[in-house]
Amino acid sequence: MHLLAIENLVVEFETASGPFRAVDGVSLHVDAREVLAIVGESGSGKSVAMLAVMGLLPWTAKVTAARMEFAGRDMLTLSAAERRKIIGKDIAMIFQEPVASLNPCFTVGFQIEEVLRVHTGLDAKARRKRAIELMTDVGIPEPEERLGVFPHQMSGGQCQRVMIAIALACNPRLLIADEPTTALDVTIQKQILDLLMKLQAEHGMGLIMITHDMGVVAETADRVVVQYRGRKMEEADVLSLFEAPKHNYTKALLAALPDNATGDRLPTISDIFDGYAGDGASA
Fold it and tell me: Where does the record place the ABC transporter domain (predicted)?
């Protein structure tokens, strides 16, 4: 049994010009202790698919799937109250733009402890102790003093570490990291990726890494799902994907890497999908 299994996920939004399908029949799975990368350019439906799993899309979004199970539980039939017991505890998400994702009106200590208040029976003293442990685990110096600071008083890298601490507060079984290094400089990106992989190995979590960075994919993933315009183009283990990509879109992504540049004109989307008439997914 997979930790998370999704079959034929469809997400539609109502627009002035009619329904817009942001996710179009995506199927994927991830197991415990496995890292699944979902890769594709901006607007390919990566984040929307995972927000659908989290139940964080606006009420106007229409979400359907043939199957959406977490640890054997049918996520599609859970009540809102039942889903809230899982989200943040067993499934956690690190969002894009850490500074924007944290509430500027509350200290980082309050925001870490809030997860513990909702999902555990710890008293105030135990929650503070756990918050200090978490900040230590994610590499924030002087954690006792830093509990009382506000997000704007911390760097982008430190805010990202706080987001990771919040996500790991209840030892989730599945962690979803949505572009966790996008807003950070190269040195901090490396530190955050190393931290995520270290914590994933220590806790035995399943990890879904959403990214458009093929370098991140090569460094972190066991398997890869490639998306474009809401559809799954290809799925493969990471070595097979880099050594023998099957779909033209995947080949174009890899050809666009600086190390692979030939000086020739890069293919356009119309070149890639000329005569294309299917989702092209391969398992």
Answer: 4-254
The per-residue pLDDT for range 11-51, each reduced to its tens digit, is: 999 988 999 999 999 999 999 999 999 998 888 999 999 99
161 phi/psi in degrees, rounded to 5:
-65, -35
Q: How far apart are CA 195 and CA 189, in angstroms?
A: 10
Q: Could you give the domains of the chain?
A: 32-63+80-275 (3.40.50.300)
| Secondary structure letter of residue 282 according to DSSP | -
What is d(CA 187, CA 196) in angstroms, rounded to the nearest whole number?
A: 15
Count of beta carbons in the 10 Å neighbourhood of residue 187: 9
The burial of 68, by beta-carbon neighbours within 10 Å (0-12 exposed, 13-18 middle, 19 or more buried), is given as buried
Q: Are 6 and 68 in contact (CB under 8 A)?
A: yes
Angstrom distance (rounded) from CA 241 to CA 226? 10
CB atoms within 10 A of CB 82: 12
Residue with tokens 């890292």, as numbered in its chain? 35
